[in-house]
Amino acid sequence: MTEYKYGFVSDIESESLPKGLNESTIREISKKKNEPGWLLEYRLQAFAYWQTLQEPSWAMVKYPKINYQDISYYSAPKKNLIGAEAQSGGAVESLNDLDPELIRTFEKLGIPLSEQQRISGVAIDAVFDSVSVATTHKELLAKYGVVFCSISEAIHEHAELIKKYLGTVVPYRDNFFAALNAAVFTDGSFVYIPKGVKCPIDLSTYFRINQEETGQFERTL
User: Fold this and answer.
1) What residues make up the domain containing 176?
2) Is residue 37 predicted with pLDDT exceeding 90?
């Protein structure tokens, strides 16, 4: 069997929450993201509802039962936490603030983050474990009025849009997994394209899980 080319693990020092899921977990995630009170309340409501539900049984599908208390719900590179996570919950302002190994990881994946090597014609939001670490071509898109950033950044910079649209397509009361995601999501991509505007380039998100025994719960809006 051929070894999977992208199945490598990066040697990056990370900070993870202890395993387990309870109200304290939800509050700690929200605290790490420096979120406003209304979003914490949204998370807690989703978690309370999730606790009333049973995991669905799928026809013709067999897999080991998931122990939701045996997962860490937040993990992030330590160096990435120095600035952005403590202040706005978004990606770092400069690639100089990132762990060099993190940059090399995305280069090995064919997703260069540096301005000189960025993929032309495609803007990428790079998510590593529980945090977005960089979003490319933001300045170009801004010239057209297009907002493309991590959802963590959007929560702080575009709160009214988040409030208006979060959970409107799939509300947390829709199903077991929607409720779980609403309670513990940590990052993902946000895009806003004004009416009548054609986005000049493609938009893409790359999610990478590196830390063992963690769950990655993304949210895209």
Assistant:
1) 14-208
2) yes
Element (H, E) at 50: helix 37-50
Structure tokens, 153: 């950044």
Number of independent structural domains in the chain? 1
The pLDDT of residue 82 is 40
Assess if residue 7 is contained within a domain: no
Q: How many CA atoms lie within 13 A of 172 on its CB side?
A: 22
Query: For 58-68, what is the mean pLDDT?
Result: 89
Question: Is the residue at 195 inside a domain?
Answer: yes
Distance CA 29, CA 160 (A): 21
Q: Report if residue 215 sits inside a domain.
A: no
pLDDT of 3 reads 82
pLDDT at 130 over 90: yes
**Which long-range CB contacts under 8 A does 21-27 form with residues at least 24 apart?**
21/68, 21/69, 21/71, 21/73, 21/184, 23/47, 25/73, 25/184, 26/183, 26/184
| Model confidence at 84: pLDDT above 50 | no
Q: How far apart are CA 203 and CA 123, in angstroms?
A: 5
- Beta-strand relationship, 131-135 and 122-128: antiparallel
